Amino acid sequence: MRPLLALLMLSVLLTGLVAGCGGGDQSGNGGEEKQQAGKDAEQGGGASKVEESDKKIALGTIQTVEEDKRKISVKLAAEVRGKKQLAFKVNKRTDITFGGEKAEIGDITEGQQAKIEYVDRDKGPGRAVNVELFEVQRREPSEEGEKTN
């Protein structure tokens, strides 16, 4: 009985010691740096840059442009997570290019091909970080390729 009691007391003491250490954060500030970083991210201060690992890429055709709401939707070239179309919020920091030149949201038109780097959001449309627009090269049918019936 005594060994069992001693084992029980030892486990209680070890549990208290681990819990008293703050779960391994031994920086001496009780995790205040992590809390401050979270506050900065919420307020947009200092954490406005998106990590490369957070970005995703969508390729497709612009379906709708709501310039006043700064929203666009894209019909995807390939299905993503069961979706064939995605919506994006285009804020003032979004880099938009058309044919390699700087562009604005007003330059985006339905039917354009686009590559969009974005960050998923929990609710609503993703946030576009970069929008790259392409001119569609229409190929004329070649004389050899045309069939006459």
**Sequence of strands across the biggest β-sheet:** 1-2-3-6-5
Radius of gyration: 27 Å
User: SS-based structural class?
Assistant: alpha+beta
* CATH homologous group name of the domain at 52-134: Copper binding periplasmic protein CusF
Number of strands: 6
Element-by-element helix/strand order: HHEEEEEE
Total of helices: 2
Could you tell me how far the N terminus lies from the C terminus, measured between alpha carbons in angstroms? Answer: 100 Å
Q: Roughly what fraction of the amino acids lie in strands?
A: 35-45%
How helix-rich are the residues, as a percent range? 10-25%
How would you characterize this protein structure?
With 149 residues, the protein is an alpha+beta fold. It has a domain at 52-134: OB fold (Dihydrolipoamide Acetyltransferase, E2P) (Beta Barrel). The protein has 2 helices and 6 strands; from the N terminus they run H-H-E-E-E-E-E-E. The chain has helices at residues 2-20, 32-43; strands at residues 56-66, 71-80, 83-98, 101-102, 113-119, 126-134. The protein has a 5-stranded mixed barrel with strand order 1-2-3-6-5. A hairpin with a 6-residue loop joins strand 5 (113-119) and strand 6 (126-134). The longest helix has 19 residues, at 2-20. The radius of gyration is 27 Å and the shape is elongated. The N and C termini lie far apart (100 Å).
